[in-house]
Write a structure and sequence with these properties.
The structure is a single chain. This protein is an alpha/beta fold. Helices cover about 40% and strands about 15% of the residues. It is built from 25 helices and 20 strands. A 6-stranded parallel sheet has the order 10-9-11-12-14-13, sandwiched between helices. The longest helix is centred in the middle third of the chain and has 27 residues. The structure holds thiamine diphosphate (TPP) and magnesium ion (MG). The site of magnesium ion has 6 residues, from strand 4.
Length: about 650
């Protein structure tokens, strides 16, 4: 497709008009960025991007990430103009209104052509790194004739200023991700005003120092943009193109200033802009010949896609690539059989070690699993024996050394999962999930299958002390919607939780695992963790108490049960590896595990904040009892800490007795 420059200008103005009119209609939104980057985006879509609007999920399409998500009208305009079924013009007219897929920021779950949800600045670039990793991995696995595409990003000053940008570009440079191209909207404006208020760094030098190529262009000169994007496309390094632009370009009185970043232009300025750019058409009206030029862009992609379809059909690897891209797990019950065999053994291991044992079963059977750790491989036990390093020398490797980049790792894993064809999992200490927290939240919002292996999950890690001991962390992760937080109690539950995590195609998972050894408590039953909570030990005789515990405290609950039984007090032990899954059970099952009988005392035991446990215990005798840790830990051996903070039979039994007699 070769469109002359004089045809590109009206195409770019169509983006400007749609953006300013939609923001005006919504009376909120961000016109500046789409108007400023309209020319660059037009060249990208007209001359470089590989896409087929009729097949938004075509596996070998280029990925386009609008990292500067506030400029959402740019991507809505592009998708509509090039002929994607969604969004419609009606959706655009209802920008930011209830029911329109054109949400304030682009959401991957609302529109097929949107690769990832953006808005939290910086994470789009970091997710794009993950997409480029997945692309290289699949190309190495399936060959260039089936996997051969670029990841193009539009990012603003904010995306480059965020800390996660440093993590992302360091990783991309080290991995030599030459298929990654970032177009920087270098408008020198942020919300507060001139970018020089807050930044003075030499950004091109920073990127070059990280192993990137950097090119520059005048972002309003079509020929110059095409030259720079051509250089980027030809580079075998990850590439930044600094596109010098005017924010709000086209608006005669507001372009170049920060007021145009995030407010409607207003009727008078919109009229002046129409005049200035020569756009005589009514709001939301795109002249037929301009729309035809936009629609013609998809033809090249449709042809490439048809050729690719033929190669896929002819390839003996086609079916496997299709399976992986569809996110379907391999068939077979080998893993389940192996885990069932474990019931008979009595394995005492830390759950982080149990997780490694599980991985050594799963990773060979599920080749799309790509693991990694933020420099804690030997502590997180995340590397399976069959995995070798994913590196610039060997993209077929299935283990990523992410370095000390928890946030970057998590965002990259989102990008990998969204790209498809791989199931990413990655480890760090549970306490440092807070560094990654917004990416974990974005996993949940975007419905990605990302598995977080978070070890050293309580004071049970011991001597490293309170900086490393999670107290509020597990409960705070449970606050995030659509995130399954697992805290398995032994090797059997660990295997079950891993299986559930793998099977949860639209829900990310956290596996909170211990550093310290735990005995095997389960010797029977099948996939009980899938219920979220279950009765592990039944009371002998009259049940007066239900002990509800998670992870390492289930062992303690079993001991407390014995001590109570010795005094003639019947107690159930409920293991609750996943609150979210328990909450999702029907009322009958929940009542079976936690009967609504206020004469029974419910006791929660978890080595973390008690906040949140009331929901399971308040409806019970005397308001129930919550055993936990509502303060920071301390530096000492684990055993000493558990004693010091009351996680012992001797400390708990008297509290239970007192409650029972009150
Ligand atoms: C992590 C994060 N912090 C803050 C914001 C709020 N915010 C949205 S856009 C923006 C400024 C962006 O500046 P720039 O990227 O240069 O965009 P431009 O004004 O040029 O469109 C800020 C602070 C955000 N969306 N995400
Ligand atoms: Mg800016």
């Amino acid at each position: 497709m070769t469109l002359a420059s004089d045809r590109l200008a009206p195409m770019a103005n169509a983006i400007r008009a749609l953006s300013m009119d939609a923001v005006q209609a919504a009376n909120s939104g961000h016109p500046g960025m789409p108007m400023g980057m309209a020319d660059v985006a037009t060249v990208l879509f007209a001359k470089f991007l590989k896409f087929d609007p009729a097949n938004p999920k075509w596996a070998d399409r280029d990925r386009f990430v609008l990292s500067a998500g506030h400029g959402s009208m740019l991507i809505y305009s592009l998708l509509h103009l090039t002929g994607y079924a969604s969004p419609t013009l009606e959706d655009i007219k209802n920008f930011r209104q209830m029911g329109s897929v054109c949400a304030g920021h682009p959401e991957n779950f609302l529109i097929e052509g949107i690769e990832c949800t953006t808005g939290p600045l910086g994470q789009g670039v970091a997710m794009a790194v993950g997409m480029a990793m997945a692309e290289r991995h699949l190309a190495a696995t399936f060959g260039d004739d089936l996997v051969d595409h670029n990841t193009w990003v539009i990012a603003g000053d904010g995306c480059l200023m965020e800390g996660v940008n440093h993590e992302a570009i360091g990783l991309a440079g080290t991995l030599k991700l030459g298929r990654l191209k970032v177009l920087w909207d270098d408008n020198k404006i942020t919300i507060d005003g001139d970018a020089s208020l807050s930044t003075s760094e030499d950004i091109p030098a920073r990127y070059r120092a990280s192993g990137w190529d950097v090119f520059e262009c005048d972002g309003h000169d079509f020929a110059d943009i095409e030259r720079a994007l051509g250089q980027a496309a030809a580079s075998d390094k990850p590439t930044l193109v600094a596109c010098r632009t005017l924010i709000g370009k086209g608006s005669p009185n507001k372009q170049g200033g920060h007021d145009v970043h995030g407010s409607p232009l207003g009727d008078a300025e919109i009229a002046a802009t129409r005049e200035n750019i020569g756009w005589a058409h009514a709001p939301f009206e795109i002249p037929a010949e301009i729309l035809a030029d936009w629609r013609s862009l998809g033809e090249k992609g449709a042809k490439l896609r048809a050729e690719w379809d033929a190669r896929l059909a002819a390839s003996d690897k086609g079916a496997e690539l299709t399976r992986r891209m569809n996110g379907e797990l391999p068939s077979g019950d080998e893993a389940a059989k192996t885990f069932a065999g474990w019931l008979e053994s009595e394995t005492t291991v830390a759950t982080r070690k149990a997780s490694e044992n599980v991985l050594n079963v799963l990773a060979p059977l599920v080749p799309e699993m790509v693991g990694g750790s933020a420099d804690l491989t030997g502590s997180n036990n995340t590397k399976a024996k069959c995995q070798s390093a994913f590196s610039a020398k060997d993209y077929a490797g299935r283990y990523v050394y992410y370095g000390i980049r928890e946030f970057g790792m998590s965002a990259a894993m989102n990008g990998m999962a969204l790209h498809g064809g791989v199931i990413p999992y990655g480890g760090t200490f549970l306490i440092f999930s807070d560094y990654a927290r917004n990416a974990i939240r974005m996993s949940a919002l975007q419905q990605t299958r990302v598995i977080y292996v978070l070890t050293h999950d309580s004071i049970g890690l011991g001597e490293d002390g309170p900086t490393h001991q999670p107290v509020e962390t597990v409960m705070s992760l449970r606050l995030i919607p659509n995130l399954n937080v697992f805290r398995p109690a032994d090797v059997i539950e660990t295997a079950e939780c891993w299986q559930i995590a793998l099977e949860s195609a639209e829900t990310p998972s956290v596996l909170a695992l211990t550093r310290q050894n735990l005995p095997q408590l389960r010797t029977s039953g099948e996939m009980l963790s899938a219920r979220g909570a279950y009765t592990l030990r039944r009371a002998e005789g009259d049940r007066k108490v239900i002990l509800i515990a998670t992870g390492s405290e289930v062992e303690l609950a079993v001991k407390v049960q014995s001590a109570l039984q010795a005094q003639g007090i019947g107690a159930d032990v409920v293991s609750m590896p996943c609150m979210e899954l328990f909450e999702a059970q029907d009322a009958a099952y929940k009542h079976e595990v936690l009967p609504s009988d206020p004469s029974i005392l419910r006791v929660s035991i978890e080595a973390g904040v008690t906040h949140g446990w009331e929901r399971f215990t308040a409806f019970s005798l005397g308001g129930g009892l919550n055993i936990g840790l509502d303060r920071f830990g301390a530096s000492a051996p684990a055993k000493v800490l558990f004693e010091r903070f009351g996680f012992t039979v001797d400390a708990i039994v008297p509290q239970v007795l007192e409650k029972l007699s009150s």
